[in-house]
Specification:
The complex is a heterodimer of chains A (214) and B (290). Chain A is built from 9 helices and no strands. With 214 residues, chain A is mostly helical. Chain A has a single domain, classed as MetI-like fold (Orthogonal Bundle). In chain A, helix 2 packs across helix 5 and helix 5 crosses helix 7. The radius of gyration of chain A is 20 Å and the shape is flat. Chain B contains 12 helices and no strands. Chain B is mostly helical and 290 residues long. Chain B has one domain: MetI-like (MetI-like fold, Orthogonal Bundle). Classes of the chains: A mainly alpha (214), B mainly alpha (290).
Chain lengths: 214, 290
């Protein structure tokens, strides 16, 4: 127990890194994922195919393999970044596929009558999407998006195996220092993850309520 | 087609615009491809010696075969144990006893809310110290996978049971079955049938997660690939092969899941809860999630 309370600063520092990894990757995945979702519903076939190919390939690859590709593969073609940025890149590429699916299912969840009505009053594809579909889809996208980002939070733990100091590496470091407190240390780390996940869930609940109210 | 509702049937002008868009889109895709190829070529990634081992070294394929075997072994054992644990936890959550329900949902939320890697490391690091028993990496991986997937499967089964009409329970109780009998003989068989697509999707997640074994030096597919790379020094080629193996297996499983879902929908008339509906609040993005 003393190891835990004596090292709260290590936990704080480690999980601040976990949180920052999550935030950077979330922003990246949101941008890339929305782009891919837009490609998948667009009237231009090559873009549709590319979007579908990306989602299918990435969703069926383990995140560890994506990490391996980024961390060990990119240096082969002379792309060299610090491990932290590699980790953000890997998490972004992986999570974007799931964001794209969440956004696409949100778009598909808007009643078809809405799109038909917009078209019948003469709106173009972009107008239909921007003025009618997306504002309504947004509220439906939030719950699956919350799941995706909570999964992302947990997935940042894999960065520990690729040279990034974050929650799990902080935990391992403390276990190396004092093996006898291993249970308390792992439990504390688990509580940190649960706390962050609950916080994230509460944030998205709030967001959903606000979007639905407006 | 689902997306065609977003735009009208195209007239000649729109068709021309789409054609232009297609050409531009294709050009952008080709430009990206050319960029990647150029980058690869500039770094000699097309040199013959990087690919020759795939044709000349039977040992490479033997090692990959072993790795794949270990991956599948871990996945199958973990799936079996997770189904048992998941059923038990689902029973707990569906129980009429309040404290049992409470314990089951606490366990489920806990294991779904922490990273899988943390659970695996618990069995790898803490178990030997606390119980004075060294767990082989295979079992540390399997137990971690079991706890996490057991919790998810419990939620899948619960969603399946809850989707059944109330009349099933009422009728079974009325003919004098006990609560346990109702659950075992009436509700569970139907729930598993309904949720079969979701369970198969979860199998994809489980299979992907076995690759975490490489962190604890379990010689599954990814780690075997790493060992091959250390000898042959062709990371892009070997890891591409490994990614393709995973994609091939998982894509077949995903296909199976959507085939089952389609058959299900025809049988039950669309009243089947989707895999996403299982997810609420915390945890993964659906059994098909990250």
């Amino acid at each position: 127990m003393d190891t835990v309370f004596g090292n709260l600063d290590v936990f704080a520092e480690a999980f601040a890194r976990t949180l920052s990894l999550t935030l950077f990757a979330a922003v990246g995945a949101l941008i890339l994922g929305t782009l891919i979702a837009a490609m998948r519903v667009s009237p231009v076939p090559p873009l549709r195919w590319l979007g579908a190919l990306y989602v299918q390939a990435v969703r069926n690859t383990p995140l560890t393999v994506v990490f391996t590709f980024v961390v060990f593969g990119l240096p082969e073609v002379d792309v060299k970044l610090p491990f932290y940025r590699f980790a953000v890149l890997a998490l972004t590429l992986y999570t974007a596929a799931f964001v794209a699916e969440a956004v696409r299912s949100g778009i598909n969840s808007v009643a078809t009558g809405q799109a038909e009505a917009s078209r019948s009053v003469g709106m173009t594809f972009m107008q239909t999407l921007r003025l009618v579909i997306l504002p309504q889809a947004f509220a439906n996208i939030i719950p699956p998006l919350a799941s995706v980002f909570i999964a992302l939070l947990k997935n940042t733990s894999i960065a520990s195996a690729f040279g990034v100091f974050e929650g799990i590496q902080g935990m391992n470091q403390l276990i190396n220092d004092d093996g006898s407190a291993v249970i308390a240390i792992i439990l504390t780390a688990a509580i940190c993850y649960l706390g962050l996940a609950l916080g994230l869930a509460a944030l998205f609940n709030q967001l959903e309520r606000r979007v639905r109210a407006s | 087609m689902a997306q065609s509702v977003l735009y009208d049937v195209q007239g000649p002008r729109a068709r021309r615009r789409v054609l232009i868009g297609s050409v531009v889109g294709a050009l952008v895709v080709l430009a990206l491809l050319a960029l990647v190829v150029g980058r690869l070529a500039a770094n000699d990634q097309f040199a013959g010696e990087l690919y020759r081992p795939f044709f000349e070294e039977p040992d490479l394929w033997r090692r990959i075969g072993e790795g794949l075997q270990n991956t599948l072994k871990a996945a199958v054992i973990a799936l079996g144990l997770a189904l048992v644990l998941g059923t038990l936890l689902a029973f707990g959550r569906l129980s009429t006893v309040r404290w049992l329900r409470w314990i089951a949902s606490t366990i489920i939320e806990f294991f779904r809310g922490v990273p899988l890697l943390l659970l695996i490391l618990f069995f790898f690091l803490a178990f030997p110290i606390v119980f004075k028993v060294d767990l082989p990496p295979l079992w540390a991986l399997v137990f971690g996978l079991t706890l996490y997937n057991g919790a998810v499967i419990a939620e899948i089964i619960r969603a399946g049971v809850n989707s059944l009409p109330r009349g099933q329970t009422e009728a079974a109780l009325a003919v004098g079955l006990t609560r346990t009998q109702v659950l075992m003989q009436v509700l569970l068989p139907q729930a598993v049938r309904i949720m079969l697509p979701a369970l198969v999707s979860q199998l994809v997640v489980l299979l992907k997660d076995t690759s975490l074994g490489f962190v604890i030096s379990f010689e599954e597919l990814l780690r075997t690939g790493g060992q091959i790379v250390q000898v042959l020094n062709n990371p892009l080629q070997v890891y591409l092969l490994i990614a393709l193996i995973y994609i091939l297996i998982n894509l077949s499983l995903s296909r199976l899941a959507s085939y089952l879902e389609g058959r299900q929908r025809r049988t039950y008339g669309g009243a089947v809860p989707s895999a996403q509906a299982v997810e609420s609040g915390m945890g993964q993005a659906g059994p098909q999630g990250p």
